Amino acid sequence: MIVAAFVVAYWVRAAQSGVVATAETFWPMEQYLAFVGIIVPFWLIIFALTGLYSVKKTWRAWQEFSSVFVGVAGGTILVIAWPFLTRQEFFSRLVVIYLFILALVFVTIGRGLLRLLRQFAYRYGIGVHRVMIVGTNGVAHRFIDEIQNNPTLGLRLIGVTATAGHDHPPTLAGLPIIGNLDDLEEFAVKHPFDDLLIAEPELPKSLVLSLLEFAEEHGLNFNLTPNLLDVHSMNIAMEELAGLPILAYQRTSLEGWGMILKRVVDVVVSTILIILTSTIMLVTAIVIKLDSKGPVFFHQLDDGSPTMRVGQHGQLFRYFKFRSMQPGTHSLRYSKLKDQDVRSGPLVKIKDDPRITRVGKWIRKFSIDELPELFLVWIGKMSLIGPRPHLPEEVARYADHHRRVLMIKPGITGMAQVSGRSDLDFDEEVRLDTYYIENWSLWLDLQIFLKTPLVVLASKSRKAGD
To answer: pTM of the predicted model, to two decimals?
Structure first.
């Protein structure tokens, strides 16, 4: 597809010029194809570095396209840089523009066709991985729902293995439940499977090691959902002190130049987004005022004190967004509405919140109420990507390990938000945010940023309170 993009870009440019390609006009086809033969292998290396050739990844279409975009952009930059590196005069800047557009289209189409071919094969059981899930908790239910509702992942559930000693039903979501490791051994003989997926993060290490040995003995892929300590341990470096090896725990790459780079991106992107969404924010302010009495922004509490959120390192900052509730009802979240809490942990989540206005339901549904947070990003109180900004009274109920999310600035969107929005358990949210802190990169930020609009559009309703 890359070669086809090169050739078509050449033809389009030649057709526009209306002249025969010569050394005096632009490169003849033979010279051009020789150049293509040199560039394409480097382009493929760029694609490999973006992970496009990983056979184990079960990417969704938007994830694959974002990697294709980065790979095509990197290859195009290489084409632009090549004349400077080789001191050759390139023949046409228009060819580079056509090449970028055509390569993006052609490679996307090519990988789309491969995706259809793979899905066709999955339909007939070709290449499908048979999965055994270990655990019956909420995480296991999420995995089961995801696999059963997305046959294009190429995964087929075989059964579930219980880990607790208490009684359990014979089936879960239509899948047989295996009682223990001894039963798992017998089940694997009758019903072979390929992947062992551990869904319970807090399993005893002895049991995890037994499962790992079982997987190695039977040639299975071993997949483990990490607990918070496992996530912390992902970011370590081997160092030496007094001639002895030590493991140095790295807090986050969002320090030093990483922090500066993220801040530059926040300022540039938030400025662009403020300009692009200014009309939407103006219209929203008008309809909020017309719909109900009260201020346009949610910026102070019922007693008149300013609305505060907890930012980086526990520092408080003044917070505001578009008002989506009736004025004077914020304090109800901790009184007579508290019995409607629908999520475990220190956060209060109110289902079918009666305080929300008519306009509030719509602006929450599409996250328009959060657009003013772009100004908080611009002035440095928040970031585009990061953990959600939490209330001081929520943070006061955090366990010690929950406070790790306060290491960096809160974000408008984040890993937890795009992985389940308000239906995540709080510990799951912290686990995802901790992973983000430990493994931050601009590429990870780009993935979260591109996924956010898709998650917002797919969400049917906003369940979180102000």
So the answer is: 0.54
